[in-house]
Amino acid sequence: MTPDPESRDNTDSTGLDFEKPEPWVLGGHRRNLVRRVKGQPAREAKRKRDGNHIGRHHLHMSLAELQRMRLRVIQCRLVGSIMKLHQGGTPPERWEDDLKEYIQAVRDYEFMGQFGHQANDPFVISAERLTEDQIMQLAWKGAIQDPLERDAAYNDLKEAAARPWESAWNPIGGTRYDTKRQAWYSAFLRRLLISLFGGLFMLAPMWIMVLHNTRATCLATTTVFTVVFGVIVARFVERPGEVLAGTLAYAAVLVVFVGLAVELDGNSDPVAVDGRRS
Questions:
Q1: How far is the CA of 252 from the CAs of 160, 178, 248, in angstroms?
Q2: What residue intervals traverse the membrane (predicted)?
Q3: Minimal CA–CA distance to 59: which of 170, 153, 149?
Q4: Where do the structural domains in the chain lie, given as residue ranges?
Q5: How far is C-alpha 218 from the geometric centre of its chain's CA atoms?
Q6: Is the pTM of this model over 0.90?
Q7: Beta-carbon-side half-sphere exposure of residue 237 (alpha carbons within 13 Å)
Q8: Which of 133, 159, 244, 263 sits CB 3.0–4.6 Å from 38 for a disulfide?
Q9: Rounded to whole angstroms, how far apart are CA atoms 58 and 128?
Q10: Percent share of the chain, pLDDT over 90
Q11: Which letter does DSSP use for residue 36 in this model?
Q12: What is the pLDDT of residues 7-43, one digit of tens each?
């Protein structure tokens, strides 16, 4: 989950109460809490919604934004406590609890981030899911009674990118079977891409060095492929030692091809038609 930038357009920077910072913090997160989904559902998904009398105000809500707001509230309280300590004053009695709560909130946010790339992210409430669409539209109608005001408020919302629209009633986070199947499929794709990546980086330089058997070509091919391989490994592997070991192992394999190419190049002196060396 990528944090949305906070907007302070409608927040008075002088109105921050460090004891109760919630109103000030809310001003920076309000427009990110509720958004309208960009686009409209496809034919089958629209038919399902029309058949169940679900309205046309398709919303998107982020529980991650709530967590970011929670982090900001605790942070403001801690800043006020630290300032009082620095000035020699008496900080609020709850500063230790605030610190513990902040640490736990950061851990919770990291846990929420693990689901950010999943299609069934349980920390996103979005209209693409049929049940959630109905729940949010009922809440939207209950919060704004007048239809004209409701339409105006809806058009004023920020847009959220649309995902595939559901046309069936699915549980939160999907069923265990679907979740397990998607996890297996994602892992299979990763393994497949790794195998293709390894085969490409092994076979491509071999073909180049065999078809263009010169020392300069072999050295240039080895250098380029080793550098590119190292960059890609560094992108996906976190430990520096593993990056170094993988790059050196790959370079060692290519050096074997270079040695063979140099040996063949040294034994390939041209021979004249009468059998004498030119």
A1: 49, 43, 6
A2: 188-208, 214-236, 243-262
A3: 153
A4: 22-160, 176-266
A5: 39
A6: no
A7: 16
A8: 159
A9: 8
A10: 35
A11: E
A12: 444 445 558 999 899 999 998 898 889 999 988 888 8
Cα separation, 17 vs 97, whole angstroms: 19
**Do 208 and 217 form a contact (C-beta atoms < 8 A)?**
yes
Read off the tokens for 249: 């192992």
CA nearest neighbour of 202 among 224, 220, 225, 223 = 225
Q: Residue 20 carries which side chain, given as an amino acid letter?
A: K
Placement of tokens 């140099």 in the chain: 262
> Helix or strand or coil: residue 276?
coil
Beta bridge partners of residue 159, listed in sequence order: 36
Structure tokens at 264: 């063949």
Query: Alpha carbon of 98 to those of 15, 19, 32, 74: distances in Å?
Result: 21, 11, 25, 6
Element (H, E) at 266: helix 240-266
The residue behind tokens 């409209």 is 40
* 8 A C-beta contact, residue 60 and residue 74: no
